[in-house]
Q: What sequence folds into this?
């Protein structure tokens, strides 16, 4: 291999981890943002859907509960579906759920769509952490986790301010619709960029040869 070719390989090895980091941080930021972005819009949501403010709090609670429900089985889903496939599926369903939340005509519908959003979004954080750890060499994994931590910490802080501005300037429905273009762009970028490492592919192939099992407890 020529020196020029070796140099190109080195540059690609340096760029790809940061490219992977960029494409997985965006949907993760979007998912964490949704834990708080609707908080200041609850009064408007309740009024728009002819519900009480107390009942409207289920818009937040249902999302957080769905997040918590999906987390324990994320590893099982990744092992059987593949991390890339599961990550892309989570982004797609989260984006769909966001669009449906924006067109909900009743509080019951909105809560149902928020549950869908939460179930899809719950898998984004662990999946993105796995991508970052595999993309970066051991000596840079601390930096990768710092980047993830910044996104996870900043998103909930930005959420109420952004949600209040969107609600005042446009409509509470845009609190959810704003995820649609971002989600579609993130889905396309992740589909182009992400690949499962060899060890995950080998594990998935090995699981397919075993009898299907699921730990119900």
A:
């Amino acid at each position: 291999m020529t020196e020029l070719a070796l140099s190109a390989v080195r540059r690609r090895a340096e760029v790809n981890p940061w490219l992977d980091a960029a494409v997985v941080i965006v949907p993760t930021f979007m998912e964490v943002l949704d834990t708080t972005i609707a908080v200041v819009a609850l009064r408007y949501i309740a009024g728009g859907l002819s519900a009480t403010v107390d009942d409207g709090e289920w818009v937040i609670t249902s999302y957080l509960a769905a997040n918590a429900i999906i987390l324990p089985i994320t590893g099982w889903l990744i092992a059987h579906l593949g991390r890339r496939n599961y990550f892309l599926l989570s982004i797609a369903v989260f984006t769909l759920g966001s669009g449906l939340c924006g067109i909900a005509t009743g509080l019951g519908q909105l809560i149902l769509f928020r549950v869908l959003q939460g179930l899809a979004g719950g898998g984004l954080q662990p999946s993105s952490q796995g991508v970052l750890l595999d993309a970066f060499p051991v000596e840079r994994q601390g930096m990768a986790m710092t980047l993830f931590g910044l996104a996870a910490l900043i998103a909930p802080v930005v959420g109420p301010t952004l949600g209040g501005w969107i609600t005042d300037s446009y409509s509470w429905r845009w609190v959810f619709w704003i995820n649609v273009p971002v989600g579609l762009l993130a889905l396309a970028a992740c589909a182009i960029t992400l690949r499962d490492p060899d060890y995950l592919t080998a594990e998935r192939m090995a699981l397919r040869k075993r009898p299907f099992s699921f730990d119900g407890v």
